[in-house]
Amino acid sequence: MLQKTRGIILHSIKYGDSGLITSIYTELFGRMSFITQGTRSKKSLVKSSNLQSLFLVEIELYYKPGRELQRIREIKNSAPFSSLPFEITKSTQAIFIAEILNKILREEESQPALFEFLFNSIRLLDLLEDGIANFYLVFLVQLSRFLGFGPTNNFSEDNPCYDLMAGIFVPVTPTHPHYLNRDESAVFSKLLEMSYQDLTNLSIEKQIRKVLPDRILEYFNLHTGINLNIKSLEIVREILH
Question: Which helix (H) or strand (E) holds 234?
Answer without folding.
Answer: helix 233-240
